[in-house]
Amino acid sequence: MNYNTLKINKLTFYFTSVYIIGAILLVIIFYVGKKFNIPFENLTGDPALTFKAHPFTGILSNVGILLWCFTASVCFFSGTILFNINDKNNGIFLICSGIFTSVLLIDDFFMFHDYIFYSFKNFTITQPFTYAIYLILSTWYIIKFHRIILNNTYLFLVMSLGFLGLSASIDLIFESKGLEYFIEDGFKFIGIINWMLFFSITAYQIVLKSKTKHVL
User: Fold this and answer.
1) Which tens digits make up the pLDDT trace of 5-43?
2) Domain regions of the chain by residue span
3) pTM value?
4) Cβ neighbours of residue 43 under 8 Å, at least 6 residues apart?
C-alpha cells in the first residue's frame, strides 16, 4: 500500500467517522424528543429564540463554554501531533488534558451538576459529591503530570484552580442569586480564562520544543 492510498484511506475513515457521529447525535435527539414529549424546535432551535429571550442572555456562560471548547481543541490537536512524532509523554499529557477539559465543558454546557443529576428519580448526585470527584481527579492529574506542569507556566493553572475553587465554594455556601451569583460566575469565568491560557501556552511551547528537537 503506497502513501497516497494510505492517505485516502485515512481521510475516508475521518469523514465516515464524522458523519456517523453526526447521524448518531440526530438519532439521539429524535429519540429524546419522542420519549419525553419535548418539541423538536426546543431541542434543535436556539434557546434565546425558543424562550423569546434577549440574544445576550447567558453571554458570560456562553463565552466560557467557547473557551472550554477552544482549550480542549488545542489540547487534542497538539497532543495528537506530539504522540504521532513519538513525544509520547507530552502527547499523553495534552490528550488527558483535553479529556479533562471536555468533561468540564460537557458538565458546564449541559448543566449536569446544576440540574441533570437532580432529575433522576432513584439516584441523585449532589453538588458536594460532584465537586469531590473533581477534586480527586484534579489531584490525580497534578500528581501524574506534575513534572510537565512545573516546567511550564504553572502559575496560570494555580490561579485557575484557585478561582474555580472559590466559585464552587460560593455555589455551595450562598444562594445562587443577585450579587452572589455574579461573583460566583465571575470567579468561574476568570478561572476558565486562566485554564485556557495555561494549556494554550503550554501546548505551543511543548510543540515548538519538540519541533526544534526533530529538526535538529
Assistant:
1) 656 777 888 889 899 999 999 999 999 999 888 888 888
2) 1-51, 58-215
3) 0.83
4) 29, 32, 33
